[in-house]
Amino acid sequence: MGRADLLDQNCWPNWPQWICYTANSAGLVSTALWFLVLLPQVIKNWRRGSVAGLSFLWAVANFTASLVNLFFAFSVQLPLYARVSAVYMPVLEITILGQFLLYSCKPLTTRLLALLLCLLVWGTIIELELNLPESRDKIQWVAIALWSIETFPQVVLNIKLRSTTGQATTSVFIALIGKTTDFLVTYGLKMPLPYVVMCYFSSSSAFINGFQVFLYGTETWLTVPPVDSEKEPSNGDINEKTKLLNGTITTSNQILTSPSDIHCCYKTKHRQRPCRYWIITCVRYVSMLYISVGLIVFAVGFFWRTTTFVAILGPLACFLIVCLASEYYNLKRRGRLKRCETAEEGITDAIFNCGFGRSSSKSGSGSDQLIQ
Fold it and tell me: What pLDDT does 224 receive?
């Protein structure tokens, strides 16, 4: 297959040729990104020897959908890179599931039971795919449904933890770029309807997940240096800052790490904010703006490709999942705080009754004896 043939697949007949070339080029980029997307996550799990903060349901749904798609990809007309990705992705996904089996803090019996249930489901899927090849286009909707919701368990878990420490940030960034190129492929080429539906939901959930990474900022390089705006600077603090700027001392709390940081500091009323503060702030807000615009573009493209008002249910479902999960865990946090406050009040009352109350009663009895 020549270069021209590779970039001239699944084209719309009435569209300009350059759109077809651009979309197929984006497909090649997307395939390269999906070869890399899970590697940082695998490495991070291995280095820390843990899968804490990572959703098991996400991993199971991801592999199950890829297993179904593996059969479907070779039963319809798809570009070569789509078939290559269909073969490669299950390998990385089963590796992450193996890490759950090894590193999870759940009891061994629980892990083995989950593995047994997964094997039963996967065996059933393989049996259906081999014995009912004419129904693969219908079975593919199982993959569509799983890919549509696969990232939402991770999104909900991040909302619960208010953190994305379980995820490899590099993997999330690669997914953001990959979902952007997937959008160009799906809406720039003539693709089956299941792929259109899958592209919208998987891309939207991935962008929501990326928004969480920038919102929570749990990675070191995403953490904005703290600024103490309440403490008034003393003469000693001013002298220490003067020595710090002159390069004569280095403290453990030093935030100016290079001459470039010193020269691009912005002096606030109480403390200097380094250049890193403003760079990180700009990157975070620009990235969240890009993700927000992307979510709107995905919704518009989904409505255009499906040509039905039912498509509005897609953005509505994504919005409801995020809002309901946020409200649920906020209510749970408030409930825990109230219980903690009630417990603290109970402990305080108990200390008062057992301490002051008892001592006062003793002193009272003693005084009564004296009076008698």
Answer: 55
CA distance 276 to 255: 9
pLDDT digits (tens, 9 = 90+) for 24-47: 888 888 888 888 889 999 999 999
**What is d(CA 139, CA 56) in angstroms, rounded to the nearest whole number?**
23
DSSP 177-205: HHHHHHHHHHHHS---HHHHHHHHHHHHH
What values do phi and psi take at 120, rounded to 5? -65, -45
As a whole-number percent, the residues of the chain with pLDDT over 70 amount to: 74
Q: For the whole model, what pTM was predicted?
A: 0.73
Identify whether the C-beta of residue 266 lies closer than 8 Å to the C-beta of residue 273. Answer: yes
The more confident residue out of 112 and 254 is: 112
Q: What is the pLDDT of residues 103-135, one digit of tens each?
A: 988 898 999 999 999 999 999 999 988 888 887
Please answer whether residues 244 and 251 qualify as being in contact, where contact means their C-beta atoms are separated by less than 8 angstroms: yes
CA distances from 90 to 68, 94, 113 (A): 10, 6, 21
Q: How far is C-alpha 159 from the geometric centre of its chain's CA atoms?
A: 10
Return contacts of 121-125, CB within 8 angstroms, 24+ apart.
Answer: 121/64, 122/64, 122/67, 125/64, 125/67, 125/68
With beta carbons less than 8 A apart as the criterion, state whether 348 and 235 touch: no
* SS3 label, residue 355: helix
In the chain, % helix, strand, coil (3-state, to 5) comes to: 75, 0, 20
Beta-bridged to residue 126, according to DSSP, are none
